[in-house]
Amino acid sequence: MPRPALHPTDELLDAARDLVVEAGPRAAGIRDIARRSGAPSGSLYHRFGSRDELVARAWLRAVRRFQAGYLEALGQEEPREAAACAVRFGVAFALSAPADARLLLDYSRAGLLDSEPEGEVADEVARVNAPLEAAVRDLAVRVFGDAGVEAIERTSYAVIDLPLAVVRRHLLAGTLGEDTAGRLEPAVLALLDKEAR
């Protein structure tokens, strides 16, 4: 039976994420992550191969954590309720996992990494948003009856762009609360109003 890892992967990813959130991507070098996590630098290189792969894994983990609940919300049968559920989940996620939310809201993958990812992690990065894109397309069809450019744009404004901007502003200002979702929902639903098209 193999021995359990002395430094669990989630602890290492937490260290990388926290350094990025606190001081920016350049603060998350291998030595910095090693100091923060208590893991030897050599074991980080052995497990991840490079600083970029470690940081990319932290970003991918945050994306997947967010998408798990967001996609479930967008899958609600009634489309306007799906959008409202997605708004509520987005706010709840940022409140319950602020470090993951800040990583996603403050940095794109390109802004985090020094070079393009390679191998398995590159494939994961390339595919990670495909389920969200499919869910937005599905919601557009359910709301507007088609997946044309106009419908996709309106749906994206409603369930991605507007909530992202509002949550980001409040999270950075320290003013995010459960009531944020209640104020955001009517604006989101107005963008999905077929009559206003």
Distance between the termini: 61 Å
Helix fraction bin: over 70%
Strand residues, percent = under 5%
Mean pLDDT figure: 93
- Unreliable spans: none
Overall 3D geometry? elongated
- Order of helical and strand elements: HHHHHHHHHHH
Structural class, from helix and strand content? mainly alpha
Tally of helical runs: 11
- Which value, in Å, is the CA radius of gyration? 19 Å
Strand count: 0
Main sheet overview? none
Any descriptors?
single chain; mainly alpha; 0% strand
Describe what this molecule looks like in 3D.
The protein is mostly helical. It has a domain at 62-196. Helix content is 76%, strand content 0%. The protein is built from eleven helices and no strands. It has helices spanning 9-23, 30-37, 41-48, 51-74, 79-96, 98-106, 109-112, 119-127, 130-144, 149-173, 178-191. The protein is elongated, with a radius of gyration of 19 Å. The chain starts with 8 loop residues before the first helix and ends in a 6-residue tail after the last helix. The relative contact order is 0.12.
